[in-house]
Amino acid sequence: MLNDFFNDNYKSLLLLLGSLTVLLVSYFIVLKILRKLGKNPKYLIPPSSVKKVSTPIFFILLSILIRMGSLRQLLGLTHLELYFRKASTLLFIFAFTWLLITVIQIIKEHVMHTYDMNTSNNLRARKVATQFNILERIIIFIIIILAAGIALMSFDSIREIGVSIFASAGVAGIIIGFSAQKMIGTILAGIQIAIAQPIKLDDVVVVEGEWGRIEEITLTYVVVKIWDKRRLILPTTYFIDKPFQNWTKSSADILGTVFLYTDYSVPFDAIRKELTRILKGTELWDGEVNNIQVTDSKVNSVEIRALMSAKDSSTAWDLRVHVREKLITFLQQNYPESLPRTRLRLENMEGSGNTTHE
To answer: Does the model's pTM come out above 0.70?
Structure first.
């Protein structure tokens, strides 16, 4: 009997050591392959990414080791087989979920590394970043829900409870569906934004009368960074249901306008030449649009619109401010009589003539 006991333990030890050796060799082979791919420019897996996946892979192999009967027999815990199997299952689900989430994040980082968000013409980069940020959250959310469900269903008692709940969940499902309608609508709006992209990260928008940039897009809300550093938080459904201005929907370049109100005696050609001189003297202008137009005539003044272009909305704002100041200074110094004025006609009833004052 004693010899049989030692023989069984000896076989279990050998089997355990053999299995452990296989697992360790497999672990290091996987890491070796990942590191080799990291040195290949075609794949370019950073060393930090290899470290991220190494830990969940280790726990996956550990769950396999825990499930082995030889380990329980060697430890003299064969009566705890059920607990070892449950622990192995839960550890495997946890590690595999961790690995999937890490791989998704690595793929996102790898893709976004090829796009530069800091360039002036970053439309493509903003499109990709928006899609990946929203879809990443959706996929991770689904993975976690599925993993939690699989983990809970691995327990027989919980599975029985789940079956009974599903069997009597008709009315409850309808009630929950109505209660969660708004939340589901918000999540679907987030998915729609990721696909249709009415807004993208770093888009310039005018929302609720505020000018700002899209700073963050989640499944349920959008953060708009206002020009004065305030943050406007809006539900994702807002950008599906309500109208708003998107200044960078298809391109970053934009036209800027400056309105001047002058007297009828103003020389339009002189203003055109001055606008050209001002635009050529600043780096804010992109060299595309340069125009002066008389857009309206009122009783006491005419409306002049200076039209110019810039590479993006922030530059266009600075250019408009610059041009407005320079044109007003030009009129003050060279044509002060062309500034707006009010004319008053006085009639001398006792005299023979009329008098006009300005």
So the answer is: no
